[in-house]
Prior knowledge:
7 helices, single chain
Amino acid sequence: MLARRVTGRFQTAWDKARHFVLHSVLHADDPPGRLALGAAIGAFITFTPTFGFQSLLVVFAAWLLRANKVVGLPIVWLSNPATMVIIYYPCYVVGRTLLGREPIGSQWWNGLRHPPPGWWPAVQFYWSRLLEVATPLWLGCLVVGTCAAIATYYLVYHMIRAYRLRRWGQLTPPVESA
């Protein structure tokens, strides 16, 4: 019974995603380049640790670069609290490797328990510890996000182009006569 319910929900979600791709992306009035750029922006922003602002960043970057604003939003929703470790830990490892830093161990975590006395030294202490993690994380996110964006752009561009040429024989949707 539970398996049938889960399968039904998965099928419903798959049908909604398929409908979105077929009707909102492939049949949009934008040329393939603008659609692919919107998807690439979404892929790039997905890998930035900017929770709470990712959707706004996608819309703003798409507006700034004249890309499709809607295509990147579902992509950016892949990064959520449930997928945070899966997405950002590899980025952190990439950044740490590029910077040549050692991994953070238990001694680092135990050191957080004993900040120096006084509020300003404590702020400086925690700020320096935050930068020890944030610097490799951001560097790794930018590198991985750039690679993902480039791959997404070319993949989406060629998929949309092939679909439209096969379906309509042209890259822009045909004009429907009333």
